[in-house]
Amino acid sequence: MRVALFVPCFVDQLAPAAAIAALEVLERLGLEVEVPDGAPCCGQPPANAGFATAGEPALRAFVETFATGRHVVVLSGSCALHVRAHAGALGADGRRVAERTMEFCAFLHDVVGLERVAALNVALEARVALHIGCHALRGLGLATPTERMLPAHNVVRSLLETVRGLSFATLDRADECCGFGGSFSVGEEAVSTRMGRDRWRDVREAGASALISTDVSCLMHLRGIDRGDRGDGGAMPVWHVAEVLAGRAALVASTPAEVAARDVSRATDSPGGA
Amino acid sequence: MTRPGDAAGGLVEPSRERAQRPLPVLDAHGAIDHAAGAAAFTADEARTGWHDGALWFVREKRDRAAAMVPEWEALRELASSIKTHTLSRLDEYLVEFERAATARGIVVHWARDAGEHNRIVHGILAARGARRLVKSKSMLTEECGLNVYLAARGVEVIDTDLGERIVQLRGEPPSHIVMPAIHLKKEEIGATFHALLGTPAGLADPDALTAAARVHLRERFLSADAALTGVNFGIAETGGIVVCTNEGNADLGTALAPVHIASMGIEKLIPRARDLGVFLRLLARSATGQASTVYASHMHAPRPGQALHVVLVDNGRSQQLGRADFWGSLKCIRCAACLNTCPVYRRSGGYSYGATVSGPIGSVLTPGLDLHKYAALLFASTLCGSCTAVCPVKVDLDAQLYKWRQQVTAAGYVPASKAWLMRRLGTVLADRELVQLAGTVARTALRLLPARIARRLAGAWGRTRALPEAPTGSFRDWYRTHRPPR
Questions:
Q1: pTM of the complete model
Q2: Which of A87, B25, B312, B344 could bridge across to A98 with cysteines, CB 3.0–4.6 Å?
């Protein structure tokens, strides 16, 4: 099966380790992965700030880049939702792309299947807290939100349950927003920061030793808060789901000495599996 | 002190004069600066935690109550459909309501706006020489600024809902549409009662304070010339109204006074009596986690010797109904579940919004009145969508916030610097080379600059957050090396 992987602008530039991990996971699952050299962004940042017209060229570029027939796997719940919700307004190509665009975890769960993910045979000894981005959660339906009275399901947790040694901390507020919210994080800095700190308190009180998320954007905010408050020594490791499934979670640790592991020039090349 | 589903509110700001309060914060042009108000609120960290916890407690009660109803999601869908249908032919249902109500001896009035509403209410009181009005909580009269209007004309207005009475004694507006005094601690209420009702100094026991309020209010009930209530549901088929309360204050007021005036937003209609059960099952559970309100009072005719007036109020609702993207906000039954679940409301408080109705529903109702003044409310959200998921009538609140944002920027009501930045950002984000260039600059700065300097350059992002550890290159750099084109 051929898939196109979309690495959002900020992940590409500031968190390449998550993207490398996602690519490795998809390759090990036997997929023929291409990361097209076209659109760098889906246009969400200006659109959510009220400037959808300013973000439209980026969204158009996204549609053009991914117009050909294959699965489009997006390494961000928020970006995936933006494409699915708004690309359709750009015409027939947009509608087609919107339908085929899936968030990374949703793609693994719904298209690849848990059995094949389990065959990745990953192990990680950790008690983790799970933070599903709000757009992945309520927008894309990756899990049942606590507000809804529907049968419980959680795509992300199901994927992570295939990892040997992993256990899950039970948060007091399972799906409270972390307070990132794009331009909200700077425009409403005080509430954004408070939300981030409250999230961390919940994670620590639940006895977690690491935080795993579907969204690098949430993690950049949360990790920034945690390192800001506790310094590099006291901050908790954070991982994208892809890093865990790629077996890279142990490498990407929080201490400065281990940050070198994030250094993309040292990242080992692991050719596609199967 | 809870009072689910108060009568319509939100569309026009009260003219009520408020006591000197720090919130909301206004900018130099008189617009609400929500971020500044929220910063002032969160500056008291302990109190912010307490406020957040009090509302989260209600949200969790709501979760447990909703979980006990197996058909909860079907009920939401049904309620949404009934409201959608009603709004699609609101004109016809309003006329049907008027006809049926009139046939039952109810006097129906039509008020185009807040001013007309206030004049009608005052006219009814003046015709009878009524000087003392007891009022069961009604967000619509807050919206219309009725209390100030009547006070200026020599009518004493006593709010009889406990929470509402507390804030009235303090000269404050409600900070929440169901729990008007949720921002206050019991010690603060004790101090207010001590100063104004003569309770012992330091008395902060909720039961004792409630008992004191009961004695104080009982005198007012007995001496009232008229009673005013909001309306939770007007039934077009029967011409009757339904008022939901927990304290029985609406019933006591209307049972004793010779005239009952019910102020009702025109969107409160439902077509048939048999539709009511759908909403009663949703309202209290969504609002406070109760299976039902303590009282659901049906008023279908004046009792013998009494006059019953219903004032139908538009006040911007027709205009909202005409907005293709926002008419759905009129489905709202004022349960306040969206406030209780909103992570921003919980941490910024009702006053930071500067609107009669705060929280997510207020942020989609209020901008239609004055887009410039309320522009900031649209950005007081992470678009997390919890409001939409919790809403018992399926108002798509986060989608409406997104659409309002587009309108507010098109109208030019955002700082010029932000507009400029966003347009440049749009250009950069459509161009891979520019994104790569920006990324290279950022990574280089992160590597070379001392952390303190870098954080300062990052502005509001860097004030409370450490900046990301800089990778040496982008994913694209890595990809070109490690996955060269075949």
A1: 0.94
A2: A87
